[in-house]
Amino acid sequence: MMRQPKHVSDSKTEQIQILMPEHINGAGRLFGGQLVEWIDVVAGVVARRHSGCNITTAAIDNLQFKAGAYANDTLVLIGRITHVGRTSMEVRVDTYVEDLGGFRRAVNRAYLVMVALDEKEQPTEVPGLILETEMERAEWASGERRHELRKQRRMEGY
Ligand SMILES: CCCCCCCCCCCCCCCC(=O)SCCNC(=O)CCNC(=O)[C@H](O)C(C)(C)COP(=O)(O)OP(=O)(O)OC[C@H]1O[C@@H](n2cnc3c(N)ncnc32)[C@H](O)[C@@H]1OP(=O)(O)O
């Protein structure tokens, strides 16, 4: 059954963390594994909101640590859906450190592929995506290329 398409804004998700001592690694910076866990949760919520289904992470396609974050920083994670296939959704998660003046410094960008699952845990069709802005259309076009590239890589056993 064809499902009603949704807007990018319908599933946009924001998570805030204040960095505590338990999030910091031996070098005094935010532990990357902790950040990946938060990123995965944000992407999971975006995918659940878009699909209305349980989801699983199929791939973390790209993960770039751009700058460090430190104890007591305010961390802002923003997840947006960028592309949908038949059963998969690509989610981009941007992470920033927000200073006391509200300025946000980018510390990480990640793209994840989430797959919607039916009650038998099998991949199931997801709603289409309504693109409204130039940025959303540009992300979709690059997402389309990445989707094809991933398929190609899987066929090659990469
Ligand atoms: C103090 C703190 C300490 C912290 C310490 C560190 C912690 C650091 C935490 C890190 C956190 C990490 C993130 C964990 C994330 C989970 O924990 S989620 C649980 C783990 N993930 C799983 O179990 C998924 C396992 N995989 C599967 O179940 C199946 O491969 C899948 C994903 C359901 C796909 O099933 P399939 O039979 O391949 O189905 P198929 O119809 O061929 O493909 C379905 C769709 O998936 C896409 N797809 C399939 N495989 C792939 C792939 N490899 N790539 C991209 N797309 C794919 C296909 O293109 C297709 O898309 P559409 O063309 O339909 O749009």
TrEMBL record:
Transmembrane segments: none annotated. SUPFAM superfamilies: Thioesterase/thiol ester dehydrase-isomerase. GO terms for biological process: acyl-CoA metabolic process; fatty acid catabolic process. Keywords: Hydrolase. This is Acyl-CoA hydrolase. Pfam families: 4HBT. Residues 9-120 form the HotDog ACOT-type domain. One of its GO terms (molecular function) is long-chain fatty acyl-CoA hydrolase activity. It comes from the Bacteria. Belongs to the acyl coenzyme A hydrolase family. One of its GO terms (cellular component) is cytosol.
